[in-house]
């Protein structure tokens, strides 16, 4: 890539069973600094392993606890001239309450179809399909 040190980050595609219909919902977070909708994620702390960082970021950005599942595709892209690598896991929400904060001012629970529509970055939309595949689910609105 550029010879610059890689920005290491991690996150989760956070999901829960929908109250009605038996499908699932995916959590999306809005970051006012970028005015975008994304999956909860963030930079790793020094010496922090990616899975620990992913769970920490879910807690910090959504207020949710979670049970992690399969690892999803790693996204690689440039931020300015620096390469960034974000590792993701499927994670089922197990509890908690969202409280708006400086980093994340809104959170939505949406269907996979709505998530694909709302997510700002095309690369994040691919993670919705990866989640559904990892959970062995098919169908546009499940």
Characterise the protein shown here:
Helix 2 runs antiparallel to helix 3. By secondary structure, the chain is α+β, with helices and mostly antiparallel strands. The protein has a single domain, classed as Alpha-Beta Complex (Nucleoside Triphosphate Pyrophosphohydrolase), CATH 3.90.79.10. Strands 1, 2, 3, 4, 5, 6 and 7 form a 7-stranded mixed sheet that branches. It contains 3 helices and 7 strands. The C terminus is likely disordered.
Brief write-up:
Helices cover 23% and strands 43% of the residues. The chain has 142 residues and is α+β, with helices and mostly antiparallel strands. Strands 1, 2, 3, 4, 5, 6 and 7 form a seven-stranded mixed beta sheet that branches.
């Amino acid at each position: 890539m550029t010879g610059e040190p890689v920005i290491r980050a991690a996150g989760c595609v956070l999901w829960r069973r929908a109250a009605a219909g038996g499908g699932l919902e995916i959590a999306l977070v809005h970051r006012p600094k970028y005015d975008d909708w994304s999956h909860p994620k963030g930079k790793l702390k020094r010496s922090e392993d990616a899975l620990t960082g992913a769970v920490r970021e879910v807690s910090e950005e959504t207020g949710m606890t979670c049970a992690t599942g399969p690892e999803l595709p790693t996204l690689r892209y440039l931020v300015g001239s620096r390469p960034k690598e974000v590792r993701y896991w499927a994670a089922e929400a197990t509890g908690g309450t969202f409280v708006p904060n400086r980093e994340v001012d809104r959170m939505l629970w949406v269907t996979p179809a709505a998530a694909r529509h709302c997510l700002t970055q095309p690369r994040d939309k691919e993670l919705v399909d990866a989640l559904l595949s990892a959970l062995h689910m098919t169908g546009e609105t499940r």
